[in-house]
Amino acid sequence: MPVINSAEVILADLEVETVRTDATQSFVKQETILVRLSTDDGLIGTGYSYTIGTGGPAVVSLLQESLLPLLIGEDPRCVEALWRRLHDSTHATTVGAITSLALAAVDTALWDLRCLAAGQPLWCLAGGYRQAIPLYDTEGGWLHLATDELVAGASASQRAGWHGVKIKVGKPSVTEDLARLQAVRDAVGAEFPIMVDANQSMTGAEAVRRAAAYEAVGLGWFEEPLPADDVSGHVRLAASTSIPVAVGESLYSIGQFRDYLQRDAAHVVQPDVARIGGITPWLKVAHLAEAHHVDVCPHFLMELHVSLVAAVPNGRYVEHIPQLRAITTEEVEIVDGHALAPDRPGIGIAWDWDAIDDRRTR
């Protein structure tokens, strides 16, 4: 049997490709945590996770001091067993972002090894439902952009054949939010999907009020209106509006998704591989959502998520926010408004190690 004989972690700071702001924060930089696992039969699997500017060194420390040593001498084919062993070894710090980000970097590397050993691309080995996934754009919808810029961005996405756009909301006045959304709706017509994202910025009462105002625009979903731990608030909101409620990028365990789905508090789930702890739990969330007849539209990480959305039957969209172009040699292929899952063995990301070394901080 193959065994893992080397494990290393790299922290690299990656510049943000464009100014990105929402109702609660700005994307300062991407601290990219990369894990490389080598086996005695000559394979190297690479996994990664990320932060948006803080916490990366803490993730690296957890990996170096506690998690990676547990992998040496282990069989990389036993992905479930290794994920559970690492998770249980950090029991006192789970559920939480630092542990999930560390687990995700390892788990993604293990899946890369699994796919390389099998000679299959991730989208096939993880399920193989379809290769082409509808794409929607977030890059043209940031909160700091003027209304005419939102309109121009949405119109460009529509002309390119993409399948929707997402606009950030949470301006001080609901009137301002509504005017921006209506301008985009007027430009793209009644059928083109528009989603909105409040980034957990609202109270329960304000979310209900704004949802009522937004209904006239005809929205695809209302994303993260409330803090992620306010399940009961999302229950009340979901019952009060015809707009589908979307949550998930700030949830860190399968159980948290279960609570939302069991209570009809989410109509769309948005698991993020890095924040849920890797591909292994991501797939479990996707299948859990399928059992509740709910679509999966993951957050960020388009370069990885395209393969996972392609793997499952309830994968609906890939979110267009490119962030790895500076440290990869290939981009996600887009054809007729669809992102194509890479068809080569592995997780499908072509890393540029010279560019990574240039940005290495640890």
From TrEMBL:
<feature type="domain" description="Mandelate racemase/muconate lactonizing enzyme C-terminal">
    <location>
        <begin position="147"/>
        <end position="244"/>
    </location>
</feature>
<dbReference type="Pfam" id="PF13378">
    <property type="entry name" value="MR_MLE_C"/>
</dbReference>
<dbReference type="Pfam" id="PF02746">
    <property type="entry name" value="MR_MLE_N"/>
</dbReference>
<dbReference type="GO" id="GO:0016836">
    <property type="term" value="F:hydro-lyase activity"/>
</dbReference>
<dbReference type="InterPro" id="IPR046945">
    <property type="entry name" value="RHMD-like"/>
</dbReference>
<dbReference type="InterPro" id="IPR036849">
    <property type="entry name" value="Enolase-like_C_sf"/>
</dbReference>
<dbReference type="GO" id="GO:0000287">
    <property type="term" value="F:magnesium ion binding"/>
</dbReference>
<dbReference type="InterPro" id="IPR013342">
    <property type="entry name" value="Mandelate_racemase_C"/>
</dbReference>
<protein>
    <submittedName>
        <fullName>L-alanine-DL-glutamate epimerase</fullName>
    </submittedName>
</protein>
<dbReference type="InterPro" id="IPR029065">
    <property type="entry name" value="Enolase_C-like"/>
</dbReference>
<dbReference type="GO" id="GO:0016052">
    <property type="term" value="P:carbohydrate catabolic process"/>
</dbReference>
<dbReference type="InterPro" id="IPR013341">
    <property type="entry name" value="Mandelate_racemase_N_dom"/>
</dbReference>
<keyword id="KW-0460">Magnesium</keyword>
<dbReference type="InterPro" id="IPR029017">
    <property type="entry name" value="Enolase-like_N"/>
</dbReference>
<keyword id="KW-0479">Metal-binding</keyword>
